[in-house]
Amino acid sequence: EAFESLLRFAENHTSSLFETAYRPMAKEAAEPVKELFTDISLYILGAETTVESAVLRFFDSLFPLVYSRLINPGITDLSEDYTECLRLTRQDINPFGRYSKNVVTELSKSLWASRMLSQALSLGIEVINTTEHAALTKECSKALVKMQYCPHCQGLTLIRPCVGYCLNVMRGCLASISELDAQWREYISTLEYLTNEMAASHDLEIALTGIRNSINEAILHAQLNGPQLSATVDKVCGQPRQQEGILSADNVVPVKEVTETQMFVMAHTSLNNKRREFINYMKRSRTFYASIAERLCDGDLVMRDSSTCWNGEDVV
After folding, report:
1. Could you tell me the residue ranges of all domains in the chain?
2. SS3 sequence, 28-48?
3. Whole-number Å distance between alpha carbons of 94 and 23
4. Backbone angles phi, psi at 303, to 5 degrees
5. Separation between Cα atoms, residue 264 and residue 25, nearest integer Å
6. 150-159 tens-digit pLDDT
7. What is the mean pLDDT of the chain?
8. Cβ neighbours of residue 223 under 8 Å, at least 6 residues apart?
């Protein structure tokens, strides 16, 4: 939920750039922005895709809009063929300069850690669910019956098992599960490493909210190089029809970057707190599979003080 909340915030944050700064293309830019964040979400969830392909596909879709609405706002004939030509040309003429590559670099680091954490959580759930329904052997079932109910045959319905006896039975029953101890400890250490990475150089919140500024810089770069881009596009794709009396690209001045500090801090703090709470909780379960017998032989199941208890053969 924290991931989804942050992604929604970053998507809205990015969309607001077009609504406030690049209004002529805001409506058409909504779909590419949505697709970008859908791809990011799918990548985090483990889909067979890459950050680079998602980002470059977004800039492929963005270039026809920037070219026809900002660089040459008089274009009226934006056919499918011409749009496709612009998309393909984007890869060759690199209208957005280094900024498109910067987005890939920044997102790749942070999304990798988030993807690994997401996959690790799924694995953890699978392990817990599998061991929760572990089958008991016949020997284990007999030992449990002997421990719990054999005193009843002597009329001793209130006598509980001795602690040592209970531990021996439970350890025998859970031998296969306790073998997971080393791997489970390593798993918790990996979770700890990933959450630390996400809070440091792979900060997801900073990377996602930084997409907006990077896109803004990329568009500005394309506008500054508008005449050269137009000359190259005309050679490759031909000249589309122009409508007279339209403002030139020079008159389209983007609004300065609007910072939504308060909303960002809330989203950032929310995920940070959840991540911290989660890893602290998980660290307490580091010895879970090693100490599972001790956990079961605790409380009302056994007699913990020096009173009489059942040792499997007699009352002692």
Report:
1. 1-246+258-297
2. HHHHHHHHHHHHHHHHHCCCC
3. 23
4. -95, 115
5. 25
6. 888 888 888 8
7. 85
8. 66, 70, 71, 249, 252
